[in-house]
Amino acid sequence: MDNCIFCKITAKQIPAGIVYEDEELLAFKDINPAAPVHLLIIPKLHIDTLSSAQPEQAALLGKILALAPKLAGEHGCAPVTHADGSVTGGYKTLINTGPDGGQEVYHLHAHVIGGPKPWRGQR
Ligand code: 5GP
Ligand code: ZN
Fold this sequence. Notes:
Blueprint: H1 5-10, E1 18-21, E2 25-29, E3 37-43, H2 58-74, E4 80-81, E5 87-88, E6 91-94, E7 110-114
The chain binds guanosine-5'-monophosphate and zinc ion (ZN).
């Protein structure tokens, strides 16, 4: 789609710190990270927003969600359960939708936000 920054990243017309790519998805580092790890997962297909995704795109949405833990793990954010039962690590998976949802870029994307505190709770 013309003038869509994420379509331009998909087309490699503008650079991004790409961390994952397959036929349907692209993941790259957020240009203005809110945390030590801040990745964006997008479908290569332009979809404006979660609310405009169609029922037949459910599998594509599922692939976005399934990619989040894989990338979080690769970037050191997987939750770890210790011998004493305590858990450390973890991350947020976030899809902002529409103006009141805080969406700024109208190409569907999931944020994967993690890393050591104290960033926690800022989004
Ligand atoms: P939203 O508020 O729409 O959920 O999030 C959009 C995100 O895209 C923001 O966190 C913003 O920093 C990021 N972003 C906007 N423009 C660019 C860009 O050109 N490159 C990259 N890598 N991230 C961008
Ligand atoms: Zn787009």
